[in-house]
Each structure stands twice: as C-alpha cells, then as structure tokens.
Amino acid sequence: MDHSRAPVLDALVEFHEQGITPFNPPGHKQGRGADQRVVDVVGEGVFRSDVLGPNGLDDRLLRHGVLQEAQELMADAVGAEHTFFSTCGSSLSVKKMLAVAGPHEKLIVARHAHKSVISGLIISGVSPVWVHPHWDGERHLSHPPGPDEVRAAFEAEPEVKGMLLVTPTDYGTCGDIAAIAEVCHEFDKPLIVDEAWGAHLPFHPALPPWAMNAGADLCVTSVHKMGAAVEQSSVFHLQGNRVDPALLKAREDLLGTTGASSLVYATLDGWRRQMVEDGEKLLSTALSLAHGVRREIDELPGLRVMGEREFIGPADSFDPLKVVVDLSELGISGYQAADWLRARRQVTVGLSDHRRIVAIITIGDDERTAATLVAALDDLTKAAERMKAPPVLHLPDPRDLELSTVMLPRDAFFGETEQVGVDEAVGRVAAEMISPYPPGSPALVPGEVITKDVLDYLRSGLAAGMQLPDPADSDLESIRVVRDPA
Questions:
Q1: Which among 48, 83, 401, 464 has the fewest CB atoms less than 10 Å away?
Q2: How far is 164 from 185, CA to CA, in rounded Å?
Q3: Is there a contact between 161 and 100 (Cβ–Cβ < 8 Å)?
Q4: Residue 313 has pLDDT above 80, yes or no
C-alpha cells in the first residue's frame, strides 16, 4: 500500500480547495461563528479542520471512503487484518472490544485493569473472572499475570469467552503476550490486549513485542499517549477468526459517536504515515535520549531509576521510555514531588504515587527537554530536605487488596444503593468504583465486599495526596453500597 498517502489529511486539503459553503453541522461553520477569544487560544486551524460531518470530507456511512482507506492503511502499517479508529480514547475502544462476551457471560480480566474496563463490564453486564497480577509486596507494584495464572482461570471457568490482558502497565512492565495468547488459543478463546501505552511498539525492534505480533486477537492502543496524535486518539486492531469483524463493527457503531471530530482522524492518519516513513529513526533517537536521561537521573543523590531488575520476570519485558524514579531515599512522596515540579519548575510527570514519579520520553522530546527534566530533578533533590515528611500511607499486603466479588458489577452499580459512613461500609457490597488516578486502576469495584484494609489504604492515600476522582463522596467520609434487603 502507498503509505505516503494520508487520506484524511488529503481530503481536508481538497475540501478547503472546493470552497464549500456548509449548511450542516458543525455549527461554528469552519470557525466563523467561534468566539475570537477561543480562536486566539486554540487557533483557527482547529475549526477549519473540524469538517467530518455529513457532506464534509466523509460521513458515518463512509460513502466517500476516506476513513475506510485510512483504517486500511493503519492496519497494513502494523500488520493487523482490521483496524478501527476511535475518537474517545482507549476508554471507549476497550468497551467496544468487550464484544466477545455478552450479559452474564464470563470473561477473564486482569484485576489491575483500567477503570474503563470496569466501566465496560458495568455497561455490558459481562461477569469478570479475575486474574490477579503479579504483586511486588516490597515496592507495592503490580505487573501483568503470567500464563500459569491464565491457564488456571480457564480450567476453573471453562465457559469463559476469552481473556483481557493489560500490558504495558503505567510503569512500563510488559507481560508475556505470546505465552498467554498460546494458552488462550489452546482453549480456542480470543485474547484481548489493553495496550493503551503501546502505540509505538510496532515501529522499533528494540522495544517490547506488541500484541498483534505476539498472537493477540484484539488489541487497543492510545495513540495520544506514546504516539503523536491529539488527545482522545485511539485505534483498535483485529486479526484471526475468533472475533467476527462484523460483530466488532456493530459494537463500534453502537458505542461510537455519530459526530466524530476529523481532528482525531487526521492526526491518527498523519501519525501512521510518520511512523511508516520515519518511525524507527525517530524512536531510535527517543530511546537514546531515554537511556541518557535514565543514567543522569540515577546519578542524582537520593534518586534511583527503576528498570528491569524490579519490573520483569523471565519472559516479560520493559519499555525504557518510561522513566520510573524512586524517591524513597529523599523522604518525600511522589505526590509531593509532582506538585513541587509543576509549581516550582513548570515540569509535569505522567504518574506519581506514594514513592515514585514516572516521566515519559517520546519522539516529541529532545536534548533541551531532557536537560530540563534532569535539572528539575536535581533541584528537587536539594529542595526535598526542606519539605515536610509525607503523611503515613497505610499499605497493606497486596493480597489483602484482593477483594471478594459477590455480585455482577452491573447489578451492584445499577441496583438499589445507599450512602453509608466508612465504618458501616466494612463488610458491605460496593456500588461504586474508587480508583487512585493515575494510573486509574480501581482499588474497589462494584460488586466487591469492602474491607477495612482497602478503606484504610484509600483514606490514608487521599490524605497523602492520592487523587480519587470517581467516588460520590470525594472526601471519602462515606461510601455508596448496595442496599441490604429489608
């Protein structure tokens, strides 16, 4: 295929050359109706490129063929058989991929899945069979489960419809997709991979294996995370015959918007062309930059860059573009560090927790941005001695966070509920998600029995700086639970 083409971008150029006067949405009419104060911030090009709707460069019926061609080029670029663009991030894509199972049918799900997966379970009524990740109790980290755990789940629940695996993690750990795919296929079941952090993986041999090459049937990736498309840009890929592409397309149409933004499609299209033409070179530069940054940060007093020793097993791998910095020796939390870096050095990080921050290197970085990061962290090491000791975070044994599921997530979420105080909530069935964010993996899922350990962890985390965006009571003085029968 001709990867020098970018069908969406080409169609945008052609559309503007035609000089069309639109009497259809979007109502801003190529920016003429937009508030100039908005245009001054986001630019005129944002509005001039927002023309995907009916009679624009394409429509939901794809009668102009632009999106279909762009998706076919993306599939060819990464070696998939079918590719679908998504305009609401991988949070929407992963819900579409749950099409392999229906209400009350079972699906094996890695328990450290993102909250979007749990939302998909709630919407679909699918019954999760949890596979717990590999817990690192010393560092309080979770890593993808292995093939032995997956095999045990299939043997215990032979009626399951497939498995959903999360890899890479927010910390860069990549699971053994090939071995897990082999187990799934022994049972003739599809493997779905939530590979939101892996958009770049197909385009450089020094990076960990990516899902399609490793035998997965379905995978989703967020191009806005590690790629170079605008926020909300996501794709999901399909290969093999274990998932009907027509069924997947129907689910995509059910959940997708009828008023998609061509900005998302255009940047996905352009990113694919960029990666096919220059991806290996660009990623080689990013990898070299990341290795240098890792060495320099590791030499700073009180900082230690984490990597393969802490993160991978015999068959796992690690993405070095995730620079995970342990701050334990500085005596401050990752929450404190992230706040200080943003407020004092105008540097942001991708993730912070009770003892770490994660800085992400991409093809958008260069020597200047790398030097800025290292200098800011150097300054942090000097400022840390003047910071207050962080509040104590209750960190139970990870096994104590493996809660019992007694109801379908959908039934607990949509059933009769009540708000009760935290002390009364112990032993009750959760009716809401509570997800430390980032990374956004719920500590509490609807349908699980609430324990004192998980509440102590969440409440102490909130006091220490943890973000909890989803509970009804943001102060966590009360919890939404399933109402007990009268």
A1: 48
A2: 13
A3: yes
A4: no
